[in-house]
Amino acid sequence: MKLELLASFFLLTTCFTAFSQEKQDTAVADKGLIKVSVMYPYAEGKTFNMEYYVTKHMPMVAAFLGANLVKYTIEKGLASGIPNQPLPFMAIGTFYVKSLSDYQAAIAPHGDAIRADFQNYTNIIPIILVSEVVN
Amino acid sequence: MKLELLASFFLLTTCFTAFSQEKQDTAVADKGLIKVSVMYPYAEGKTFNMEYYVTKHMPMVAAFLGANLVKYTIEKGLASGIPNQPLPFMAIGTFYVKSLSDYQAAIAPHGDAIRADFQNYTNIIPIILVSEVVN
């Protein structure tokens, strides 16, 4: 019986240890990753179909990236944070990857397909920022 | 002895359930949050002291936000993702908050102190994007 109690205690300890480790990993998980942010500037007459972007375009590109892709995010621009300034970006799609060169190698053969899909959801020419998560 | 085995099994199941729940929470944790992204455009002659920004400015602003702040991130611009294009942004600091109005109310009384601190790390006038995490 002592053995079983010990086993229970061991399992419980393992559980809590794994749990707190997981929480810690979450907090610092992005640090050091490379972000490729595809930013769609707002301007008069520009359109952006968020539903197509979320359900079709981003999953298509994400599928090209394999295990190098840690996660991707999509955000919808709401306003400028400075009063009386225009909205800077209508939308931003961001790929968090481990390696920029692996990202570039994976995307290169699909560049034409990705660009051809733009017209299905927007008439904006995006800017692309490559950055590193420092904190 | 049967009881202890049962208890061990229960603990193990609880552990795995809690663990997988945590992983799921991590993946979708940001969805629906408001991002306030302070973006520092690159241009010839512009400077940005990342060390001061990471150790002094961002922690100061974060401390004003209280429980409304879920997390904040800092990224360092590396390059444009489009060949032969200039770097779009030297740095971006982002606050993930639950409520935009609570953010604005918390920041308002400290606006002068925040702006006065800019000169300690940069000569860039930032643009600010308010956006919603949709995915």
From TrEMBL, chains A, B:
The keyword Calcium does not apply. Residues 1-20 form the signal peptide. Residues 51-122 form the EthD domain. Keywords: Signal. GO terms for molecular function: oxidoreductase activity. It comes from the Bacteria. Gene3D superfamilies: 3.30.70.100. This is Uncharacterized protein (TIGR02118 family). It comes from Mucilaginibacter frigoritolerans.
